């Protein structure tokens, strides 16, 4: 039988065993807390780290300097680029002005020959200038027109119908045009008034093509807005010039600045009369002459030879006589400029109109 004292002793030993084990382990292992020298970096390692930091700082400073230098270089390049662009624009403007200078000089020269404009209408589409003409034997008007695009001038039919007619003023008002001049000749029949011979409107032949005869010519504008005209024996011949619109009458007055012979009939029948002429300059500006006068004896107005002389003096290149007499009509800025020999404007089948 185990005694109670022994049991107690054994229990105490068992209870204290863990603590005794720990004490024995600490004594045997010398578990004093000692900081090993190896846990601290060697002085050389610290120095290397410090050196690396210094190098990094130096590299950053160098990068900052490089970035600053690059920024300054970019600013310099941008400034140089802007200056170069400005210089190029200046050179382009100068070149453009030099290119246009001959045209400006030429325009001043031909305008000076016409005198001082009594009226000017100008827009992006056109410039129309009105001048008075005072010659020894007649008086009249000149209309110089510089077309900016194909919308600036067109030919229209009287009341927009083939065989119908109206005055140039009526056509101007209907279309809201800034100016108008009578166009080709006409023939009456069955109570209607038809354009004479070959007539083109919007690139289409109104009544087919008729070969030129009896000194007739065709005159109008091409698709590229240039004056075209002359005698044509075939439709193909005229088609090559790509007519946009045009009408017919007689005779041709100038070709390439030279006067052409006036047919005998047109020298005397009538000798003097109101006249309407369409012409052009070397720079493709148009010139219209509308001459006043007329009585049935033909003792007032201009002869065609006089108009040839006047046109050459004005510097015209090609010129064509349009329907005259009572048909001569010039409308500018809403008013009738010329003095119609019939006492009022004649009703006509074709009109040249100008648009702002």
TrEMBL record:
TM regions (residue ranges): 12-35
Keyword Transmembrane applies: yes
Alphabetical keyword list: Membrane, Transmembrane, Transmembrane helix
Keyword Transmembrane helix: yes
Domain Phosphodiester glycosidase, first and last residues per copy: 175-355
Pfam families (UniProt xref): NAGPA
Coiled coil: none
PANTHER family tied to this protein: N-ACETYLGLUCOSAMINE-1-PHOSPHODIESTER ALPHA-N-ACETYLGLUCOSAMINIDASE
Protein's recorded name: Exopolysaccharide biosynthesis protein
């Amino acid at each position: 039988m185990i005694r109670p004292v022994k049991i107690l002793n054994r229990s105490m030993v068992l209870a204290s065993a863990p603590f005794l084990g720990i004490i024995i382990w600490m004594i045997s292992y010398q578990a004093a807390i000692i900081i090993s020298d190896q846990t601290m970096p060697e002085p050389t390692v610290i120095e290397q780290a410090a050196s690396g930091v210094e190098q990094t700082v130096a590299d950053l400073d160098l990068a900052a300097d490089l970035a600053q230098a690059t920024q300054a270089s970019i600013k310099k390049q941008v400034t140089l680029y802007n200056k170069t662009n400005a210089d190029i624009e200046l050179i382009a403007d100068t070149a453009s002005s030099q290119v246009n200078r001959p045209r400006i000089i030429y325009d001043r020269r031909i305008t000076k020959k016409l005198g001082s404009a009594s009226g000017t209408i100008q827009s992006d589409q056109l410039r129309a200038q009105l001048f008075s003409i005072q010659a020894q034997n007649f008086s009249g008007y000149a209309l110089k027109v510089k077309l900016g695009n194909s919308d600036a001038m067109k030919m229209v039919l009287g009341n927009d119908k083939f065989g119908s007619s109206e005055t140039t003023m009526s056509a101007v008002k209907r279309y809201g045009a800034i100016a108008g001049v009578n166009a080709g000749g006409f023939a009456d029949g069955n109570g209607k008034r038809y354009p004479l011979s070959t007539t083109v409107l919007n690139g289409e032949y109104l009544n087919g093509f008729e070969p030129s005869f009896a000194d007739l010519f065709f005159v109008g504008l091409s698709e590229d807005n240039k004056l075209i005209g002359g005698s044509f024996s075939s439709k193909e011949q005229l088609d090559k010039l790509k007519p946009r619109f045009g009408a017919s009458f007689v005779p041709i007055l100038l070709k390439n600045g030279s006067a052409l012979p006036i047919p005998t009939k047109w020298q005397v029948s009538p000798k003097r009369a109101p006249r309407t002429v369409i012409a052009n300059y070397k720079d493709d500006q148009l010139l219209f002459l509308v001459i006043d006068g007329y009585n049935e004896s033909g003792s007032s107005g201009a002869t065609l030879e006089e108009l040839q002389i006047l046109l050459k003096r004005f510097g015209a290149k090609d010129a064509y006589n349009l329907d005259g007499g009572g048909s001569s009509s010039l409308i500018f800025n809403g008013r009738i400029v010329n003095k119609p020999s019939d006492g009022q404007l004649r009703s006509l089948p074709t009109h040249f109109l100008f648009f702002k």
